[in-house]
Amino acid sequence: MSTSTETGSILRQPKAVWAVAFACVVAFMGIGLVDPILPAIASELQATPTETVMLFTSYLVITGIAMFFTSWISSRIGAKRTLLAGLALIVVFATAAGFSGDIESVIGFRAGWGLGNALFISTALATIVGAAAGGTSSAIILYEAALGLGLAIGPLLGGLLGSISWRGPFFGTAALMAVGFIAILTLLRPNSDAARPTPTRLSAPFRALARPALGLLAAAAVFYNFGFFVLLAYTPFALVPLGVGDAIGLGLVFFGWGVAVAVTSVWVAPILTRRMPRTRVLWLVMPLLALDLLALALFIDSLPAVITGVIVGGMLLGVLNTVLTECVMEATDLPRSVASSAYSGVRFLGGAVAPPVATLLAEALSPSAPFVAGAVAVLVSVAIVILGRKQLRAADGVHEPAAAEALREAEAIGIGDAS
Q1: Residues 84, 55: contact at Cβ < 8 Å?
Q2: Taking every annotated instance into account, which residue ranges of this chain make up the domain Major facilitator superfamily (MFS) profile (predicted)?
Q3: Residues 6+ apart with CB under 8 A from 361
Q4: b/e string for 168-195 if b means 16 or more Cβ within 10 A?
Q5: 26-48 pLDDT, tens digit each
Q6: What is the C-alpha to C-alpha distance for residues 73 and 25, in angstroms, rounded to an integer?
Q7: Count of CB atoms within 10 A of residue 100's CB?
Q8: 199 close to 82: Cβ distance less than 8 angstroms
């Protein structure tokens, strides 16, 4: 669990860590950037809601699949080159998306954007955890703060630029990512890669999921991320009938959501994990997220209720993002890059399913149906965590006896040698 010592050092970091954190902010901006312009894109490019939310799905599917291979790549070419390759791809594909003339092209270029995102995000987490001062918990809080700040600024910037043209947010992201590229190129020195890990096997992330703790957390993340992206990707369409369909209005709503994510990830999550085990925090907060989604379903016709539900959802998501990431990093003795690749790959694939399923449910059943589905998915996630509590003891800082751990490592080596 977090300690006061670790938390106190969060702002005293090497310049290289701040360079990666800045680029993380811009990378995570890309997730929420398109939220305020979804209705505008649907209108300008004559696309249905389901076609439009494929901007999320193509991005997340490619991100998720590529995540499984990022540790293999970064362990061979180094973290710095991997980060720069990811940023360069985002710049190229974000620019191409801005020049697109039809929805199919934008969806395709968002997929390429997702490839760059995968190379960058997975490697960035491992880089920050490895280089940050103050221990793992402080590093993860810094990473989650970058996530929250990016999620907050993304919709606001998307709304501001989107009020000029739906193409504006794509060009804006490309420009900011170019700045991030320069920052990492100049501040992340070659000696930052001095402790480059031993090259990992291509199959390492897939084998990692066979570890009970990581497999359980990844399964929980699939359902949790379904609820996450129902809230993020479907809500803009739910707000349009309530009178909030312009880019600025949607941008402000999701700016509030992102600020809530940032505040609770940095300040509330550490307070909770200092007072109780990480898994218990998940048991308590996940059901609250399910209740929030159900409230959105019940009060779908009330603008104040929907906006309140979005902000409250952001507060809960901030806590859960941080605690789940800490659990993944502490639950096994795997290299952090491998654990991050395996967990993130499954997590993003879970999120990719949510946007089109949500819009199809809305069309087939009712506007409230996606939120009900999201609530059910989150409840499945908490059930997985509760039922797997014995396997997740290490995530709470409870480690196996030395003999048992040695036996487990010997078995893992035997399995590896046999392959």
Answers
A1: no
A2: 16-393
A3: 369, 370, 373
A4: bbbbbbbebbbebbebbeebbeeebbee
A5: 878 877 777 788 888 888 888 88
A6: 23
A7: 18
A8: no
Spatial neighbors of 135 by CB under 8 A, at least 6 apart, are 3, 5, 6, 9
> What is the number of structural domains in the chain?
1
Tokens 């803009």 belong to residue: 236
Give the tokens for residue 376: 């059910």
Instruction: For residue 236, give its domain range.
Output: 4-418
Domain harbouring 318, CATH code = 1.20.1250.20
Q: Assign residue 347 a region: left if phi > 0, alpha if psi is -120 to 50, beta otherwise?
A: alpha
Q: How far apart are CA 309 and CA 294, in angstroms?
A: 9
Residues 6+ apart with CB under 8 A from 178: 87, 91
H-type helices in 231-335, by residue range?
235-239, 247-263, 269-275, 278-298, 303-331
**Beta carbons of 344 and 122 less than 8 angstroms apart:** yes
Per-residue pLDDT of 224-255, as tens digits, reads 999 999 998 899 989 999 998 788 888 889 88
- Residue 191 corresponds to which tokens in the numbers above? 């000696």
Look up residue 84 and give its two tokens: 């720069």
CA pair distance 355, 230, nearest whole angstrom: 6
Phi, psi at 271, each rounded to 5°: -60, -45
pTM of the model: 0.80
Residues across the chain: 419
